Amino acid sequence: MKRAATSIVGLFTLLSIAAAQPSSSNTGLLLDPKFETLGKPGAVWKLDVHKDAAATAERTEVDGTPAVVVTVPAVAPKEWHVQFQQNKVSLEKDVRYKLEVTGKADQEFPVLLFVQQQDKPYAMLGPAVKESLVSETKTLTHEFTSKATDSNVKIAVVLGAGAGKVTISSITLTRVN
Fold first, then answer.
1. Could you tell me which of 26, 79, 25 has the C-alpha nearest to residue 50?
2. pTM score above 0.85
């Protein structure tokens, strides 16, 4: 009986560990795909606003789907001064990834997608891509090959080059190869 109880405890431990890991089949490599932790202590998704810039992020639902509305009242002094991001993402050198951001804006809004080390030398691990969101929902796709292996990478949607409201309904990162 004791062995069966130990096996059941072990099974539940394995199941809880697996549940905490990102799943490539539905959420990819990023955590919190529904933005549930936004604004809470220990949040996975964060709005990073640097000096002389302003922005707010609020979790909402659009047509029953979890989303984030980022409001940027004025163009920032430098476009990277407003970033919606997730840190502590793990990438492997020479592996190809696909970053997809689905959203819309109240008017044409420039967006920069980038992947960067959080520690020195703060290198970009793939080229940055500049796109625009418009009033109709659109998916921005950025495929890149990681230039390094790192477990503290920032995935960022940079919003400082525009002013207005951006609604992000999905951000995914998946391994292509």
1. 79
2. no
